[in-house]
Amino acid sequence: MKPNLKIVNIEEINPVMDYRERRVEHLRQAIGKTGTIRNLFNLASVGARQFLLLEDSAILEAVRRLNLQFVPAQVVPLKRQKKIIANIALEGMNCSHIDDFYQMFPRAFTVNQDGRELDIGDCIVVSISRKNQPEMTMYFKRNSVGLISGAIFDFFSFLKLHCILNEKVYPGSIKNTNVKKNTESCILSVTGLVPNDLLFAVRQNFSFPAGLLRFDNGVRIIGIDYPIRVLNEKVSIREKERFLLDLMNYRLSSGYSHFIKNGVYLLNY
C-alpha cells in the first residue's frame, strides 16, 4: 500500500509526548541552517483534519518557533496502530521514590515488588527493572468506563522531577560533566496502553514523557528534505502535496534510496 503523504497545518496536530528543550533547539537550528524539514512528521489520523503526533513533540515545537504553518507528513489511521511499545531508561531511580509517591497518592496504584502477578482487574502496568534487583510493578487501575487513570500522569510528572528520563546528549553539548559515575539506571516499561488512551490524554491535556512511546505503523519514510520556501509559498495545499509526491518519487529514483527490512525507506542518504 502506498504511504499517505500530506501537507498538514500544525494547528491540526496534537502532541502525545513532551519534548526536551535541547532537542527542540537542535532541530530548530538544523531546519534553519538547511532550509529543509529533513523527515516527514509521523502522524495518525483521528478525524477530519485532526492528527496525533506519533513521536515526541520536539519537532512540532521547533517548527512553531520558526513560525511555520504547514509541515510535510506521513499519515496512518489510528486504528491501524496494532501495538504501542512504551519503555524508557531512567537514571537516579530508587525504591524511596515509589514510597514517596505512594505516600502522596495512596490510592493511585497497587504495587508489587516480589514478582507475583496480581489479579486486580483492567489496569495499565508500569514495571521498573533494575540490575540485580527484583522487578517492581505498579498497577494503575482504569476508571469505571475503562479510561486511563490521570494518576499515571501524576506519576510521570513526579519521575521527571526526581529522575533523568532517557536524557540524550548532542555533540555540541558533550562535556566531561555529562558522565555520571555510580548512577543507578533502570528501565521503565508500560504495558496495556491502547489507542483510546492516547486520545483521552490529548483531550485532557496530559502528556507522556518524551521518548516513552513507539509505534509499529508499517513503512516509514525518512530523509525527504522538504524545502521551507515551498511550504511558505502562497499556493494551495494541493500544490504543496503534489510537490511532496514528486519529491518522494525523485528521491526513490535517484539511486540513493534504501529499503530496510523493518519497513523504513531512507531517501537521499
Description:
The chain has helices at about 20-35, 60-65, 95-105, 150-160, 195-205, 230, 235-250; strands at about 5-10, 15, 35, 40-45, 50-55, 70-75, 85-90, 110, 125-130, 135-140, 165, 185-190, 215, 220, 225, 260, 265. It is of the alpha+beta class and about 270 residues long. The chain has two domains: about 5-80 and about 215-265, Conserved hypothetical protein from pyrococcus furiosus pfu- 392566-001, ParB domain; about 85-215. The strands form four sheets. Strands 7, 8, 9, 10, 11, 12 and 13 form a seven-stranded antiparallel beta sheet that branches. A five-stranded mixed beta sheet has the order 1-6-4-5-2, sandwiched between helices. Strand 9 and strand 10 form a beta hairpin. Helix 1 (about 20-35) packs across helix 2 (about 60-65). It starts with a strand and ends with a strand. The relative contact order is 0.20. Mean pLDDT is about 85; it is low at about 170-180.
Keyphrases for this structure?
single chain, 269 residues, alpha+beta, Conserved hypothetical protein from pyrococcus furiosus pfu- 392566-001, ParB domain, 2 domains, seven-stranded antiparallel sheet
Low-confidence stretches: 168-182
What count of domains describes the coordinates?
Answer: 2
Strand content: 25-35%
H/E series: EEHEEEHEEHEEEHEEHEEEHHEE
Characterize the largest beta sheet: strand count, sense, and whether it forms a barrel.
7 strands, antiparallel
Structural category: alpha+beta
Tell me the overall shape: elongated
Number of helices: 7
- DSSP E strands, number: 17
**N→C terminal distance:** 23 Å
Mean pLDDT: 83
What oligomerization state is this entry in? single chain
